[in-house]
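STRUCTURE:
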């Protein structure tokens, strides 16, 4: 029996520049083929070429046969008949894929009517059924919402609902979980499996995330520089990779299940935060704005960072991680709670003390391109903090080459501009700039999230070496728990602006006590198909509640798997009493001192659960 999809000798050029070369793929009915590789490897160009969706400057050659029918060179009318009916697409960015001025339900109904002879009412009913099938709450009501009124995860589920609308033979999913939190990613992958089960479709899943591929794919094709360099079953490719590139790619992936030697710092904290709160007004109106609500962005964060220690701050988008960082960096009195940096309480300092303190704490941003001034040379960028602190020319001339060399860059390239460097090199420039004034604490806001896995590994190795050589402390914000496992000594988990669990990474990851931490860890896919598919998954219901509402009691209870199992009296406690961090995890008292700053879990009924 011939494959459902057969790609032979596929070539794609953009304005004469090769992007895909001699790609051969075969996909059987009901099978999931994972197409994996780093940015620029040609994955998305391959997927889009199958349906003729590449821009006008693309030239495509080769053969793409669907059930024996040639698609390359087919008339546009024939491709229009196939798109959405026999082959559907789930795009990477659902917000740009949906039309912003039409309601979600109407757009799904339109996809139904484009390929089926049904009335408007029947198509609308089918749209609601599809939204219900992919787990959208109150589907009849939400069908009347516009795309901007959906969260990212809900939009992606709605996009999958549209892809299912006509029971296609093949679903092309192009990085469908890239921009999502790990918990929402788990939901979307579960919905994608539902779509495959309901329609019987084969799936071509494009992703740079090897864990997602390990969880989902039956077969894997690895792309590098426009070519498929290795293919086979998921177990074969992950367990016994043959090609050196595949071996390097797998070796670079940070793993949640790999033990790492961590250290427990015992010195004085360089950062001490208790009960931090920060709100923002919700304004309405144009000429005359009025306050109509409040965003409770941070609402009870506690943390300590000690000398020579890396503390990771983790949680879903909107949990208050980045807001916490910028509250520290403002070096001003917090709206609520207390912040101490190097033993000095913010809000009590003179201008001279604030300037001196600013030298001791520096930041490395998430997007290295956006954080570097494109008009300045790399040398001037690194020198800028030194000039701000009043360093003389001789000091600057000596320090800039030293700093570039320390972060692994050629000092001779100091006269070049940021756009002349790769993403990983630009992040190294950002690190060099942060080190220029010899800080004691580096705040790292998602410093590797924008980088490919191999480049990410090099930057993480650099950060670890600098910490050891210079005795730095790190406050490391990340949504990637695998990265946290490989760099942090301690971890603090925040949910909806509040700290819910904290402790040494080894202990928290091996024996999480808070249900939210358990769900986060459970949702992180392992790059090992056999182990990954044996794990028990904890799927959280829905998205986090809105931060515009201040919640009584435990704010996690609306999504908590444990809450539904509790007795009535226990549930009342969760509904009315705000849980606080308990004593040290090991019961030895730690350094908490009863003020909420120690290790522990903020749960009324904490239970250890193995998730790895």
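SEQUENCE:
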């Amino acid at each position: 029996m011939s494959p459902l999809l057969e790609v032979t000798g596929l070539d794609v050029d953009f304005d004469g520049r090769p992007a895909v070369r001699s790609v051969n793929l075969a996909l059987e009915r009901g099978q999931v083929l994972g197409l994996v590789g780093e940015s620029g490897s040609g994955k998305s160009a391959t997927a889009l070429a199958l349906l003729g969706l590449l821009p006008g400057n693309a030239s495509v050659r080769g053969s793409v046969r669907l059930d024996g029918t040639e698609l390359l060179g087919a008339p546009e009318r024939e491709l229009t008949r196939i798109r959405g009916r026999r082959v559907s697409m789930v795009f990477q960015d659902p917000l740009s894929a949906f039309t912003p001025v039409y309601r979600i339900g109407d757009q799904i109904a339109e996809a139904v009517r484009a390929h089926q002879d049904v009335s408007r009412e029947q198509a609308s009913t089918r749209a609601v059924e599809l939204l219900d099938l992919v787990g959208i709450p109150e589907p009849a009501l939400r069908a009347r919402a516009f795309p901007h009124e959906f969260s990212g995860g809900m939009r992606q589920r709605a996009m999958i609902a549209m892809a299912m609308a006509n029971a296609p033979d093949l679903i092309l999913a192009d990085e469908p979980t890239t921009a999502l939190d790990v918990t929402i990613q788990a939901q979307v992958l579960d919905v994608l499996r539902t779509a495959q089960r309901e329609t019987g479709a084969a799936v071509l899943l494009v992703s740079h995330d090897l864990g997602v591929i390990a969880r989902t794919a039956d077969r894997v094709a690895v792309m590098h520089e426009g070519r498929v360099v290795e293919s086979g079953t998921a177990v074969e490719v992950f367990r016994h990779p043959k090609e050196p590139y595949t071996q390097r790619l797998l070796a670079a992936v940070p793993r949640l299940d790999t033990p790492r030697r961590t250290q427990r710092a015992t010195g004085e904290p360089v950062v001490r935060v208790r009960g931090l709160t920060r709100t923002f007004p919700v304004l309405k109106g144009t000429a005359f704005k009025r306050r109509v609500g409040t965003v409770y962005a941070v609402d009870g964060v506690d943390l300590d960072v000690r000398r020579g220690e890396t503390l990771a701050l983790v949680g879903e988008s909107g949990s208050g991680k980045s807001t916490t960082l910028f509250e520290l960096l403002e070096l001003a009195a917090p709206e609520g709670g207390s912040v101490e940096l190097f033993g000095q309480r913010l809000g009590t300092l003179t201008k001279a003390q604030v300037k001196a303190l600013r030298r001791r704490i520096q930041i490395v941003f998430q997007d290295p391109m956006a954080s570097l001034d494109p008009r300045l040379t790399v040398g001037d960028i690194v020198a800028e903090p030194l000039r701000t602190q009043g360093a003389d020319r001789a000091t600057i001339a000596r320090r800039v080459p030293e700093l570039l060399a320390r972060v692994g860059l050629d000092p001779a390239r100091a006269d070049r501009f940021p756009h002349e460097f790769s993403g990983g090199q630009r992040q190294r420039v950002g690190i060099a700039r942060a080190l220029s004034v010899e800080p004691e604490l580096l705040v790292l806001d998602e410093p590797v999230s924008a980088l490919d896995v191999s480049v990410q590994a090099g930057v993480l190795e650099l950060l670890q070496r600098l910490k050891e050589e210079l005795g730095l402390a790190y406050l490391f914000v990340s949504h990637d728990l695998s990265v946290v496992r490989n760099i942090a000594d301690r971890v603090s988990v925040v949910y909806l602006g509040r700290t819910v669990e904290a402790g040494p990474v080894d202990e928290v990851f091996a024996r999480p006590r808070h249900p939210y931490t358990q769900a986060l860890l459970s949702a992180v896919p392992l790059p090992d198909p056999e182990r990954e598919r044996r794990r028990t998954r904890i799927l959280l219901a829905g998205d986090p509640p809105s931060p515009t509402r201040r919640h009584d009691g435990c704010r996690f209870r609306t999504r908590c798997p444990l809450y539904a199992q509790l007795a009535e009296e226990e549930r009342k406690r969760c509904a009315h009493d705000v849980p606080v961090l308990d004593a040290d995890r090991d019961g030895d008292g730690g350094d908490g001192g009863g003020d909420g700053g120690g290790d522990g879990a903020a749960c009324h009924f904490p239970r250890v659960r193995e998730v790895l």
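REMARK: Residues 585-597 have pLDDT under 50 and may be disordered.
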